[in-house]
Design brief:
Number of domains: 1
Oligomer: single chain
Mean pLDDT: 81
Largest sheet: 6 strands, mixed
Strand content: 15-25%
Number of helices: 8
Strand order of the largest sheet: 4-5-6-7-1-8
Radius of gyration: 18 Å
Shape: globular
Number of strands: 8
Low-confidence stretches: 139-145, 172-178
Helix content: 25-40%
Length: about 180
């Protein structure tokens, strides 16, 4: 493992992000009063918390006009990042937001290169391997194609994030009526 990546690999992909799942890693969703507006370079970014760690939503971080320079500036100040609200990276959700996934790829690259601990929190399935392979993606409509650039980004994201452990809630179980005499 390259120098610094050990910090990155301490992170986790957490779904669906229950209080118990987050609490196991010392993560507690910030209150509204912790919200801050940061200006890493020239763009303003609204974050949920920016004390000892940066806690930000995917839409705020990747859905606007932030640049790699912004991510690099933020990486100088925060050794731990929590990005919540991560959408499922299936064809269905990623198809209309290629620029957001490109920014997310940039964020992941910056944090990986700097050895910054990253926690990703999402409600749905967070499987970048499927999103990068239309043949394996159950949400991928037959006959549709992702752009090759988007597929490459998903494959790169999947490669980097394979270093993070996963914390997933167990599948809901069906109650089975017990038989007996």
């Amino acid at each position: 493992m390259a120098p610094g990546q050990d910090g990155f690999s301490r992170g986790r992909i957490i779904t669906p992000g229950t209080p118990a799942q987050l609490g196991a890693f010392g993560l507690f969703p910030p209150s509204k009063s912790q919200e801050r507006i940061l200006t890493p370079t020239t763009q303003r970014l609204t974050v949920k918390a920016a004390d000892d760690m940066l806690w930000v939503g995917f839409a705020e971080l990747c859905g606007g006009i932030m640049s790699t320079a912004d991510y690099l500036a933020l990486a100088e100040d925060y050794e731990t990042w929590v990005i919540d609200g991560i959408p499922s990276p299936t064809f269905e959700s990623a198809a209309g937001s290629a620029s957001a996934w490109q920014r997310f790829s940039d964020v992941v690259d910056v944090l990986y290169d700097r050895g910054i601990t990253l926690f990703l929190v999402g409600h749905g399935r967070l499987d970048w391997d499927l999103a990068g392979d239309p043949a394996r993606d159950p949400a991928h409509p037959s006959g549709s194609r992702q752009t090759s650039a988007q597929t490459v980004d998903m494959a790169r994201i999947a490669s980097r994030l394979s270093l993070l452990g996963r914390v997933e809630a167990p599948e809901p179980f069906e109650e089975v009526e017990a038989g007996g005499s």
